[in-house]
Amino acid sequence: MEMLPGQPLPVPTVLTQPFWDGCREHRLSLQRCLGCRRFRFYPTAACPHCASPDSRWEEVSGQGTVYSWIVARKTYDPYWRNRVPYVCAIVELREQEGLFMPGLLVDVDSSEVRAEMPVEVVFEDVSETVSLPRWRPREAAAGRSG
User: Fold this and answer.
1) Paired residues of 126 in beta bridges
2) What is the pLDDT of residues 95-136, one digit of tens each?
3) Rg (CA), the chain
4) How far apart are CA 40 and CA 35, in angstroms?
5) What residues contact 126, with CB distance under 8 A and at least 6 apart?
6) Which residues pair with 125 in a beta bridge?
7) What is the DSSP string of 105-129?
8) DSSP letter assigned to residue 7
9) pLDDT tens digit string along 36-59?
10) The pTM is what?
């Protein structure tokens, strides 16, 4: 994998490390509150719904629908300049109404993106230790082999 200078990479913390470990293994794992049983993203020390500090990490389906999106057509950052236009999407995960996760939408022309488009997570290995979750239309996966 070619890594361009200045490529932005996450810096895991004690709180976010389980999320990034799952991504590196190409699994999407989220915190689930042991109090109210709701999933949450982004990782937090306490549940934003019931304030319980008790949670565990659970693997989720990695499927959802596009809730909102923007198309970036211009950038001054050298890394992103080679990727424009690109689609930044907010995906509502199927596990729970109102469970949103941002990410790049890949394998689709920006003009074809629509609200409620079914998507699934894929992972981009950007370094030896970091894999980033991306989203692609579920129809794109059906036409692929292997």
Assistant:
1) none
2) 999 999 999 999 999 999 999 999 999 999 999 999 999 999
3) 16
4) 12
5) 1, 3, 7, 9, 132
6) 131
7) E-SS-GGG--TT-EEEEEEEE-SSS
8) -
9) 999 999 999 999 999 999 999 999
10) 0.88
Query: Token match 């996966």: residue?
Result: 141
Q: Round to whole Å and give the CA distance between 41 and 100.
A: 7
* 84: CB partners within 8 A, 6+ apart: 72, 73, 74, 75
* CA 20 – CA 105 distance, rounded (Å): 19
| Residue 9 burial by Cβ neighbours in a 10 Å radius (0-12, 13-18, 19+) | exposed
| CA-angle at 13, arms to 7 and 18, nearest 5° | 95
Structural contact between residues 107 and 87, judged by C-beta atoms closer than 8 angstroms: no
Q: Of all residues in the chain, what percent carry a pLDDT higher than 90? A: 81
